[in-house]
UniProtKB/TrEMBL annotation:
Species, as recorded: Humitalea rosea
Protein name, entry field: Formyl-CoA transferase
Record keywords, A-Z: Transferase
Example of a GO MF term: CoA-transferase activity
Domain of life: Bacteria
InterPro entries: CoA-transferase_III_domain (IPR050483), CoA-Trfase_fam_III (IPR003673), CoA-Trfase_III_dom3_sf (IPR044855), CoA-Trfase_III_dom_1_sf (IPR023606)
Any matching Pfam family: CoA_transf_3
Transmembrane segments: none
């Protein structure tokens, strides 16, 4: 893959915390931009979560690789002045404060250059009745319907383990910034006057994008749609190990029944198509579950793959890292991250890979501030 880094020479001030904003900043750093990670004296809250060694955490390292570290106390006038000076020089400003806070701290759009890209990431957006509400990935998953659609066998809605809303919003933010940078380049090429671009992204919108088809279906039906491809799902073999099997066309059900030794089910009118199988899922799924329980998982995977069915073991992250295909394609290159050592992080799809470690708290503060000092003369 050709690793183009088209944003070399671009200066990004990343005042985001957590995952979404830093994810966008990391992707800009990977594509060549100089990204300064601005943190308060206590640090980004992500530094205190997940597996840690010394002063570093895996969660922080995952989304802040390739950046420079700067600490400023924005409650102090000198800190605000330095932040404002950096914002004035930024091609892209990223912030994830509550609406209105960035402007009070000298990090609002009005503090940037005339054609800067100003990205705000918040829970519910910069306007509207919920704009001031605090929000995290878990709150966004619950509010947006993702948790309700992720109901477990216990009948309880669950958030997904990974921060899927945060990551989705971070990638969406990166795409939005790229669009704005392309539009700015067109303006400059055409000699048009500079225009500041303000981008308002929210976890609300990020979650909704994940559920585009489900939200559309619910609007038409007046209720949440059922599972679209019953009896797809996870099943346990006789050895206690789990596999996933999915169906995308009605003939797949006939094949599944044949592999499981249940051909009469394929001729049962109750299970004639996806809609009928969804209606009668409570009758069908236990029979499928019992059939899978009759043989070890790998027996079923081999039989289903031989029949060209889509199936896979249910892997843990450790299983995934050790899988021969993952290893062969280099899907998780190791990245040396200070005290954490060499950490395998998934390759960024279709983009250059981040270079360098995430910064220690305030690691480059003196160097960055020295650039703001007036040149003697």
């Amino acid at each position: 893959m050709i690793e183009d880094r088209p944003y070399t020479g671009l200066f990004v001030l990343d005042a985001g915390q957590g995952v979404a904003g830093p994810c966008c900043g990391m992707l800009l750093a990977a594509t060549g931009a100089e990204v300064v990670k601005l943190e308060p004296p206590e640090g980004d809250w992500s530094r205190g979560l997940s597996v840690r060694k010394g002063p570093e955490s895996v969660l922080h390292a995952a989304w802040n690789r390739g950046k420079q570290g700067l600490v400023l106390d924005l409650k102090d006038p000198a800190g605000r002045a330095a932040a404002q000076a950096l914002a004035a020089r930024a091609d892209v400003l990223i912030e994830s404060f509550r609406p209105g806070v960035a402007a009070r701290l000298g990090l609002g759009p009005e503090d940037t250059g005339p054609d800067a890209i100003c990205l705000s990431i918040s829970g519910f957006g910069q306007t509207g009745p919920y704009a001031e509400r605090p929000c995290t990935d878990a709150v966004a998953q619950a509010f947006g319907g993702l948790a309700a659609l992720n109901q477990g066998a216990d009948g309880i809605p669950h958030k997904t383990g990974p921060f899927v809303t945060d990551v989705m919003t971070g990638f969406a933010a990166f795409a939005a910034v790229q669009t704005a940078l392309a539009a700015r380049a067109q303006d400059r090429a055409a000699g048009r006057p500079p225009r500041r671009r303000v981008l308002d992204l929210s976890l609300l919108a990020g979650t909704a994008m994940l559920l585009a088809s489900q939200i559309g279906e619910a609007a038409l039906l007046g209720h949440s749609p059922g599972v679209p491809n019953v009896p797809a799902g996870c099943y346990q073999g006789s050895d206690g190990l789990w596999l996933m099997v999915t169906l995308v066309r009605d003939p797949d059900f006939v094949t599944l029944c044949r592999v499981l030794g249940l051909p009469p089910l394929a001729e049962d009118a109750r299970f004639a198509n996806f809609a009928a199988r969804s209606t009668h899922a409570a009758e069908l799924v236990p029979m499928v579950r019992d059939a899978f329980a009759g043989q070890p998982r790998d027996h079923w995977i081999a039989a289903l793959q031989a029949a060209r069915m889509m199936t896979t073991p249910v892997n843990s992250p450790v299983d995934w890292l050790a899988d021969p295909h993952v290893v062969a394609v280099g899907a998780a290159p190791a990245s040396v991250q200070g005290a954490l050592g060499a950490v395998p992080f998934p390759a960024v799809p279709g983009q250059p890979q981040p270079r360098g470690a995430a910064p220690l708290l305030g690691e480059h503060t003196a160097e960055i501030l020295s650039r703001l000092a007036p040149v003697p003369g």
